[in-house]
Task: structure prediction
Amino acid sequence: MNQNHQEAMADVRDMYMVHTMFRREFGLLPQLVRGVRSGDVKRADVVGAHAALMCQQLHLHHEGEDIFLWPLLAERGGAEAAAIVPAMQAQHHAIEEAYEAVVALLPAWRQTGQNGAAVADAVERLRAAAVEHMALEESEILPLAQRYVTAAEWAKLGEHGLSDTPKKDLPLIFGMAMYEGDPAVIKAVLAHAPLPARLMMPVVGPRLYRTYAKRVHGTPTPPRIGANAS
Result:
């Protein structure tokens, strides 16, 4: 890999922050679904909208890795990458199948409040597949990314998710990720954002998430799970 020795390499700490968000929200989601009374359309729509948002974010997150990360590691990582990237791709296929099962069930459940048990079971399968993948990614892929992927290349993963997320949802998503985020990592993530976003997001994002969490989880401070939870 012919990289300029002065070129900054990937700071992968933001991936741990995003993974923590997914572990927390998907960890709480099956019980949220099971807690909706049969026929309670209003509550099913609230929880279903949250499930749809989290599924969308997980899908975009992995799509970015498929487009930007795996090819770079396969090209530059030699035998180390060859030993692990195919497993990561296979896990993505399994996650995508579980994701498609969830999003296929959500519309009818949100409209009728019926068949919640099937939705909860599908969400649990997606959660289990995603958690397994994130653990392997953290132990095997992120160390490789620090060595073989530049900071500019790494930034494209986040930019991909941001570009395909409705702008109205971005402050909430940031607030959701910040909930258990290290302040130093949050500052690094926002460092390249426009000045208004750097100033406003640390205030607006958490505030939006507190309001959102009260509606979805019944509390503005849902249980924190930490970066190492499984």
